[in-house]
């Protein structure tokens, strides 16, 4: 004799899940949680590296020509000055010290004078401690007015753009030596465009 269960019993039976189905759903949820955790850890790592280790900066303007061109990407080492200060010739990223500018802007310049150095610009040449500097990274003499001899204060650096044409660079000739606290890192490499990739 045939037996047909009640409709309610059929629905109850069809709604039950087998152990393998439950295990599969649990495994999918576990995999999703692990994936989200991995993504979150990776994001935190990138943020930490960006804040404390390195940064990618884009060149804006022409103040560092011919060394750097506008829209080039730079790899900026943010840890290099934790143990020692900048060296003469370093290409650095610094906060614009101009008090008249309410927005925080960053500049890329070259370190010319160290704390205690005597800096002078005379006859269109830069002199450090009485010696004319040999600046292979420029394509012209310093245009504009001379700068009388000055001593760089402790904890400060005299910076200039490589573009020495008249009014081409806003630098220590205009805002004076910059505090070491304003220097955020050293530009070590050009990363883009590919034809310009290389160390500085």
TrEMBL record:
Gene Ontology process terms (BP): signal peptide processing
Reactions listed under catalytic activity: Cleavage of hydrophobic, N-terminal signal or leader sequences from secreted and periplasmic proteins
InterPro entries per record: LexA/Signal_pep-like_sf, Pept_S26A_signal_pept_1, Pept_S26A_signal_pept_1_Lys-AS, Pept_S26A_signal_pept_1_Ser-AS, Peptidase_S26
GO cellular component: plasma membrane
Family from the record: Belongs to the peptidase S26 family.
Protein name: Signal peptidase I
Annotated source species: Paenibacillus swuensis
SUPFAM superfamilies linked to this entry: LexA/Signal peptidase
Lineage per the UniProt record: Bacteria, Bacillati, Bacillota, Bacilli, Bacillales
EC number: 3.4.21.89
